[in-house]
Amino acid sequence: MTLDMRMTRRLPGTPEEAFDAYTDAEKQKIWFSILDEEPGIVEIEVDLRVGGRQTAVWGPSPELLFRETQTFLEIDRPHRLVTESTGSSPDGATLTTRIEITFEEHEGGTLMTVVQSGFPAPELRDFFVGEVWSGAFDRIEAYLTRERDRERSHG
């Protein structure tokens, strides 16, 4: 039996802006470390097509790198994205899960909902809820807020 998790966050911006922030390599490189006091290593490549892959390598130093490869199974920009994700931590542990993300317009912003399935243990699922996705949402929100503020000051 495997475990699932589901999280939703309201983000500033349109579904298109949120989808692109999540899938565009150059935008990801910005938000991955937007809240870090000291920038670490962030390398991301994206081939955004069904069957294509996104590869991300990140961490505080070359000795402590996390790696994730997502294979795109479904892409319906800007509404839905489904991937199979295989990640590894610096200690060599690996995890493969399925991630379904939806982006829905909601009260002038976007509801981004993540459903991730395939966790082998509750502790791992809870880590993804408490750390991985809450951190990703915080970073994407900070990026979209900064972009919106930048547009207002230049518009």
UniProtKB/TrEMBL annotation:
Domain spans labelled Activator of Hsp90 ATPase homologue 1/2-like C-terminal: 14-144
One family name in Pfam for this protein: AHSA1
CDD domains for the chain: SRPBCC_CalC_Aha1-like
Top-level taxon in the UniProt lineage: Bacteria
Family that this chain belongs to: Belongs to the AHA1 family.
Name of the molecule in the record: SRPBCC domain-containing protein
UniProt organism field: Micromonospora maritima
